């Protein structure tokens, strides 16, 4: 049922009628050009008359206004020619908006329904695409892409974050910390083609929202407004967390540099309920929970309840659960129970799933907005899960 509705929605034109007509009808460009021409002509008249009036009011010798040079009909012809010339000049110097400008203008006015269509297309693709047999889903990689696209924010220098969609550049996405995220970007490419008006930053972050919700997580409030900025907006490499480090490192990045509270920091790392580590990408190996395609507070429960030991293997230092030896914790994850203050939050989230969902939803929404210059009054949207439509 959901898919038949989706087909109906997909059949709808991508650009809304009102906006499209503003840009598509050549007549309106002509009208706009004439309007601009008239305005420019009038304003040049006003400025020349005001400059002549100012010169006439200056203290120098007063020049009498020039006599009319000819008959009134000649004057009319000259005036008409001037208006026509001005209009032609304005028309010929008026450049129609490029297709990028039109798309950006559309994005600026996109409605909840427009974004819900993008959400649906991502959600449908998460269900349909299963060419990652070991993973069960692309969704965890989408969550990671959204987080890495945003988590470079530095509140002191006001650089990084998702505002300019710089993760679309290889220079950023191929750094060591982003290894493996190419597959999430490739996964989103058809969506980007289907909805060319959505900016990359909006798409990457909406992908994370969709993934969390479709994997059973909380509803995430989201706003559109990121733009495709130039390469000079790419943040310096080295801003994402180092998994081999502990509590001090996590605090300095999440609390000091990005501005999260302690509770928000711990909640965000709870996203490790999803997905897994891949030796080919990070060097680490294995999932954190038994249900890596279902969003729960299990990361905290397992961290608190299980006994963990350093795994004996050739790879980097990581922890392994004693009981099944099939789960893992990064040194950074494990520091959440080694640090007295972090540990209190782990306990709260492990024992109260609703509270975890509430805190995660808030913090994730904030994370996705780091470094974004929203226009005033940009509305928040909450999207409906595919199964609830
Ligand atoms: C101390 C902070 C963090 C560290 C050190 C860290 C480190 C890592 C590492 C090493 C991986 C494995 C990558 C791979 O081998 O494919 C990973 C995966 C993942 N991370 Fe984090 N992460 C942190 C915080 C976060 C946050 C805040 C989120 C989201 C809000 C997040 C979401 C994920 C997800 C969903 C995966 C699984 C990706 C997949 O299955 O492909 N992480 N993280």
Automatic annotation (TrEMBL):
<dbReference type="InterPro" id="IPR044831">
    <property type="entry name" value="Ccp1-like"/>
</dbReference>
<keyword id="KW-0575">Peroxidase</keyword>
<feature type="domain" description="Plant heme peroxidase family profile">
    <location>
        <begin position="181"/>
        <end position="389"/>
    </location>
</feature>
<keyword id="KW-0809">Transit peptide</keyword>
<keyword id="KW-0349">Heme</keyword>
<dbReference type="GO" id="GO:0000302">
    <property type="term" value="P:response to reactive oxygen species"/>
</dbReference>
<comment type="subunit">
    <text>Forms a one-to-one complex with cytochrome c.</text>
</comment>
<dbReference type="GO" id="GO:0020037">
    <property type="term" value="F:heme binding"/>
</dbReference>
<keyword id="KW-0560">Oxidoreductase</keyword>
<keyword id="KW-0496">Mitochondrion</keyword>
<dbReference type="GO" id="GO:0005758">
    <property type="term" value="C:mitochondrial intermembrane space"/>
</dbReference>
<dbReference type="GO" id="GO:0042744">
    <property type="term" value="P:hydrogen peroxide catabolic process"/>
</dbReference>
<dbReference type="Pfam" id="PF00141">
    <property type="entry name" value="peroxidase"/>
</dbReference>
<dbReference type="InterPro" id="IPR019793">
    <property type="entry name" value="Peroxidases_heam-ligand_BS"/>
</dbReference>
<dbReference type="InterPro" id="IPR019794">
    <property type="entry name" value="Peroxidases_AS"/>
</dbReference>
<dbReference type="GO" id="GO:0034599">
    <property type="term" value="P:cellular response to oxidative stress"/>
</dbReference>
<dbReference type="GO" id="GO:0046872">
    <property type="term" value="F:metal ion binding"/>
</dbReference>
<comment type="similarity">
    <text>Belongs to the peroxidase family. Cytochrome c peroxidase subfamily.</text>
</comment>
<dbReference type="InterPro" id="IPR010255">
    <property type="entry name" value="Haem_peroxidase_sf"/>
</dbReference>
<dbReference type="InterPro" id="IPR002207">
    <property type="entry name" value="Peroxidase_I"/>
</dbReference>
<comment type="function">
    <text>Destroys radicals which are normally produced within the cells and which are toxic to biological systems.</text>
</comment>
<keyword id="KW-0479">Metal-binding</keyword>
<dbReference type="GO" id="GO:0004130">
    <property type="term" value="F:cytochrome-c peroxidase activity"/>
</dbReference>
<keyword id="KW-0408">Iron</keyword>
<dbReference type="InterPro" id="IPR002016">
    <property type="entry name" value="Haem_peroxidase"/>
</dbReference>
<feature type="region of interest" description="Disordered">
    <location>
        <begin position="41"/>
        <end position="72"/>
    </location>
</feature>
<dbReference type="GO" id="GO:0005759">
    <property type="term" value="C:mitochondrial matrix"/>
</dbReference>
<protein>
    <recommendedName>
        <fullName>Peroxidase</fullName>
        <ecNumber>1.11.1.-</ecNumber>
    </recommendedName>
</protein>
<feature type="compositionally biased region" description="Low complexity">
    <location>
        <begin position="43"/>
        <end position="61"/>
    </location>
</feature>
């Amino acid at each position: 049922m959901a898919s038949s509705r989706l087909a109906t929605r997909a059949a709808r034109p991508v650009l809304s009628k009102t906006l499209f007509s503003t840009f598509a009808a050549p007549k309106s460009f002509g009208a706009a050009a004439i309007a601009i021409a008239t305005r420019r002509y009038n304003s040049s008249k006003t400025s020349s008359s005001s400059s002549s009036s100012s010169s006439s009011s200056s203290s120098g010798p007063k020049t009498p206004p020039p006599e009319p040079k000819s008959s009134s009909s000649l004057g009319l012809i000259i005036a008409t020619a001037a208006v026509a010339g001005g209009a032609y000049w304005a028309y010929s110097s008026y450049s129609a908006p490029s297709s990028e400008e039109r798309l950006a203008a559309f994005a600026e006015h996109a409605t909840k329904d427009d974004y819900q269509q993008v959400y649906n297309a991502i959600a449908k693709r998460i269900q349909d695409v299963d060419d990652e047999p070991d993973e069960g889903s692309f969704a965890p990689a989408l969550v990671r892409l959204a987080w890495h696209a945003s988590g470079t924010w530095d509140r002191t220098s006001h650089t990084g974050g998702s505002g300019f969609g710089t993760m679309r550049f290889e220079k950023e996405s191929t750094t060591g910390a982003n290894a493996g995220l190419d597959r999430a970007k490739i996964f989103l490419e058809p969506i980007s083609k289907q909805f060319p008006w959505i900016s990359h930053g909006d798409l990457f972050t909406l992908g994370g929202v969709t993934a969390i919700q479709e994997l059973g997580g909380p509803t995430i409030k989201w706003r559109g407004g990121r733009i495709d900025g130039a390469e000079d907006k790419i943040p310096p490499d080295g801003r994402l967390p180092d998994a081999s480090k502990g509590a001090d490192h996590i605090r300095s990045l999440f609390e000091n540099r990005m501005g999260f509270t302690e509770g928000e920091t711990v909640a965000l790392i709870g996203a490790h309920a999803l997905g897994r580590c891949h030796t080919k990408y990070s060097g680490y190996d294995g999932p954190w929970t038994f249900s890596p395609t279902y969003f729960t507070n299990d990361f905290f429960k397992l961290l608190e309840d299980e006994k963990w030991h350093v795994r004996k293997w050739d790879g980097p230092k990581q922890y392994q659960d004693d009981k099944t030896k099939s789960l893992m914790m990064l040194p950074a994850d494990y520091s959440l129970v080694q640090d007295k203050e972090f540990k209190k939050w782990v306990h709260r989230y492990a024992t109260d799933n609703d509270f975890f969902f509430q805190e995660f939803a808030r913090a994730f929404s904030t994370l996705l907005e780091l470094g974004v210059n929203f226009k005033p009054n940009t509305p928040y949207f909450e999207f409906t899960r595919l199964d609830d439509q």
